[in-house]
């Protein structure tokens, strides 16, 4: 089984995925496909996502029973911890303290 989510992507990409998977909610696709088709769909999504985001979850032979791929959201990344895949979300406040984040200026303070 495959689950893909798309956010802020071109309509053509959504149409392409709907040929292979069922769109159960706007931007949420579910279906069954071979590993080859799954990987080709992922490659197509990554190539055409533009400034949007995409995620893919699929069945895998591991403790969790599934694997996760993410693309397009720099605040989220997949990390492996003791064989488990987790999604790490970058904390904007922590990044600011580390000098990696430049908060937008507040016009009210000018």
Q: Report the CATH C-level class.
A: Alpha Beta
The helix content is 25-40%
* Lateral strand order in the biggest sheet: 2-3-1-4-5
Structural Rg: 17 Å
Beta-strand content: 35-45%
Order of helices and strands: EHEEHEEEEH
Give the biggest sheet: 5 strands, antiparallel
- What's the structural domain tally? 1
Number of helices: 3
State the distance separating the first and last CA atoms: 53 Å
What does the overall shape look like? globular
Got a strand count? 7
Looking at the overall shape, the CATH architecture is 2-Layer Sandwich
- Structural class, from helix and strand content? alpha+beta
Mean pLDDT: 87
CATH level-3 fold name: Alpha-Beta Plaits
Brief synopsis:
The protein is of the alpha+beta class.
Describe it.
InterPro entries: CRISPR-assoc_prot_Cas2_sub. This is Type I-E CRISPR-associated endoribonuclease Cas2e. The chain has helices at residues 11-18, 35-48, 92-97, and strands spanning 2-7, 22-25, 28-31, 53-59, 66-71, 76-81, 84-89. The chain is of the alpha+beta class and 110 residues long. It has a single domain (2-109), classed as Alpha-Beta Plaits (2-Layer Sandwich), CATH 3.30.70. A five-stranded antiparallel β-sheet has the order 2-3-1-4-5, with helices on one face. A two-stranded antiparallel ribbon has the order 6-7. A hairpin with a 2-residue loop joins β2 (22-25) and β3 (28-31). The longest helix has 14 residues, at 35-48.
């Amino acid at each position: 089984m495959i689950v893909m989510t798309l956010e802020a992507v071109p309509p053509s990409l959504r149409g392409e995925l709907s040929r292979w998977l069922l769109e159960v909610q706007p931007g949420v696709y579910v279906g069954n496909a071979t590993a080859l088709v799954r990987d080709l769909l992922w490659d197509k999504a990554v190539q055409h996502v533009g400034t949007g985001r995409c995620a893919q979850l699929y069945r895998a032979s591991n403790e969790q029973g599934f694997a996760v791929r993410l693309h397009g959201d720099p605040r989220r990344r997949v990390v492996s911890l003791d064989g488990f895949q987790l999604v790490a979300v970058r904390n904007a406040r922590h990044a600011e303290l580390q000098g990696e984040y430049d908060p937008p200026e507040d016009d009210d303070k000018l």
